[in-house]
Design goal:
By secondary structure, this protein is an alpha/beta fold. The chain has helices at about 15-30, 50-55, 90-95, 110-125, 145-150, 205-210, 215-235, 255-260, 270-275, 280, 305-315, 350-355, 360-375, and strands spanning about 1-5, 35-40, 60-65, 70-80, 85-90, 130, 150-155, 175, 185-190, 265, 285-295, 320-325, 340-345.
Length: about 375
């Protein structure tokens, strides 16, 4: 029997690799002779670099960059030397987790550090850069990242703009003369599942600004500032991408990456699955087990269990989910390649207790699952 174990990480608890290890241990108690293929996954958010490096034997590199509010942070990124591919999680440089709740400020936070990571990838000789853009603290339209790569942004007095989204309201001129020429030789891919446009009621500021510290008034100001940035970008580049799906991702970094870098948007779980060889791993499998911390209707929006199920479904392989919790609407996934889903908890417990006991609970549920599967196959 061949079983593929392809979970995401359990947020604030276990990495995808640790989840896969625990599930494999539980299955092994019942099926000691089974072929257990561990394929840790991610969906373009937290854990993307770790999952890819675990599968591809890449290198974890560290670069000191400017954080969302300007203080120095050390950001990790992945390097695959054989394919000259860099995997960058923007949250490492410009993420919400780097800013204490009381200090979150969508008006001044910047993606400059993400641009510095891209620059480090260019210095390493990258031919392909994958940007995983979940968890941003920023709402600057990606302007900061582009400044770090040589795009000049100037006000009416021909002074360089300050960093941050609100400063874009003062933009008078874009200068591309110092844009790093190496960028034209690199293929950029954005691993994300956000389809929002840059501006408007469904744009970056309106939908994501409040969680980054923006008041209702600031949301309106930021939306106008991003629109102003888009106007000048269209003049400088001859194309207006503000309404393209995904331009509002990561506070507008999706817009800048498309406009200035020619980046292609792809589903994060699709990109990771391709890198780790998920489809090949599933060939000949009898069962696929996936999972995530919370499995609910939101999983349909391109999260790991959904993506894994699509791959398995094409090969006619059943899929079972082990999740920290089962949330509202999870049953909808039964129409999309998921055959069954189980929560870890075996009794009343707090979230903190569940996180602390996750390895044991995963082993137990995996063992239980194997026993039920064994009975059903008789």
């Amino acid at each position: 029997m061949k079983i593929v174990i392809a979970p995401d990480s359990f947020k604030d608890s276990l990495s995808a690799q640790a989840v896969a290890d625990a599930i494999a241990e539980g299955l092994g108690e019942v099926w000691p002779q089974a072929q257990l293929v561990k394929c840790p996954m991610a969906d373009g958010g937290e854990g993307t670099v770790e999952a890819v490096l675990a599968a591809c034997k890449g290198e974890l590199r560290h670069t000191q960059v400017s954080g969302p509010l300007g203080s120095a942070v050390t950001a990790a990124w992945g390097w695959l030397p054989e394919s000259h591919t860099a995997i960058i999680e923007m949250a490492e440089a410009s993420g919400l987790q780097l800013v204490p709740l009381a200090q979150r400020d969508a008006c001044i936070s910047s993606t400059y550090g993400t641009g510095q990571l891209i620059h480090a990838a260019l210095d390493a000789g990258a031919q392909r850069v994958i940007l995983a853009i979940g968890g941003s603290a920023t709402n600057d339209g990606g302007a900061g990242a582009m400044q770090a790569l040589g795009v000049g942004l100037f006000d009416a007095q021909d002074q360089p703009l300050q960093r941050g989204g609100l400063a874009l309201q003062d933009l008078a001129r874009i200068d591309l003369s110092d844009l790093d020429p190496r960028l034209t030789e690199v293929r950029f891919e954005i691993a994300a599942d956000v389809n929002n446009p840059l501006c408007g009621p469904h744009g970056a500021s309106a939908i994501f600004g409040p969680q980054k510290g923006a008041s209702a008034q600031q949301v309106e100001q930021l939306d106008r500032a991003l629109g102003h940035f888009a106007d000048h970008t269209a003049q400088a580049l001859g194309k207006d991408l503000r309404d393209e799906p995904g331009s509002g991702a990561a506070g507008g970094l999706g817009f800048a990456a498309k406009a200035f870098l020619g980046a292609q948007f792809r589903a994060g779980v699709e990109v990771v699955g391709e890198l780790v060889g998920l489809a090949d791993a599933v060939v000949g499998a009898d069962l696929v087990i996936t999972g995530e911390g919370r499995f609910d209707a939101q999983t349909l929006r391109g999260k790991t269990p959904f993506g894994v199920a699509q791959v398995a479904r094409r090969q006619g392989v059943p899929v079972i989910v082990l999740a920290g919790t089962l949330g509202e609407g999870y049953q909808a996934l039964y129409e999309h390649g998921i055959n069954a889903a189980f929560a870890l908890a075996n009794g009343p417990m707090t979230l903190e207790q569940a996180c602390a006991q996750a390895p044991r609970l995963l082993r137990e549920r995996a063992s239980d699952l194997a026993r039920v599967w064994q009975v059903s196959r008789r």
